[in-house]
């Protein structure tokens, strides 16, 4: 069974996304399997991890 790490802070602007994305990337570079779940409605972690053109395509899906 894998290790679960969670980052929780209700205050905005404290660097949660930066910390989470960099921690996940560092663990992946060490050869660990990483699953990052972005449950934030603003999707900031997903935006950081996906190329912008892909994010725009996913975000526009079903609109219009």
Can you characterise this structure?
The chain is mostly helical and 64 residues long. It has three helices and no strands. It starts with 15 loop residues before the first helix and ends with a helix. The mean pLDDT is 86.
Percent in helix = 40-55%
Low-pLDDT runs: none
Work out the radius of gyration. 14 Å
Query: How would you characterize the largest beta sheet?
Result: none
3D shape: globular
Number of strands: 0
Mean pLDDT: 86
Structural class: mainly alpha
Task: Give the arrangement of secondary structure elements.
Blueprint: H1 16-29, H2 44-49, H3 52-60
Question: What would you say about this model in short?
Answer:
45% of the residues lie in helices and 0% in strands.
Keywords, please?
64 residues; mainly alpha; 45% helix
